[in-house]
# Entry
Amino acid sequence: MRVTEVKEPTIYPAVETIREIQQLGLLCGLLPADGKLREFLEMALAADGGLLASRIAPVSDLHPHAVKAWIESFCPSQNRDEKAWIKWQSKSENMSAAIQELRDVEQRMGFKLTAEKLS
# Structure
């Protein structure tokens, strides 16, 4: 694969955000069609974003234990789709397969998607 020359400085706004969107798209495009991570993400995309958005507040700490508590603070929901999404996560065979699929895609891309706290 040939890498093209990067031109600096970037002359258009939001280039970092554009790259984040492209990276998410690439990650999704590399997932196996019958994979567990794709199944999980499809469930998340099918959920009513308005219901979830009404309950969420910004995360205060990115430590994995703090993020777990933050996620659990707006779950469970009475929404059927969200309940299925939460139940899916509690099955170790689902999460184990999803972890491996994500690691495989990250290896292929050569980078990890990571969270960064906004200031």
The chain has a mean pLDDT of 88.
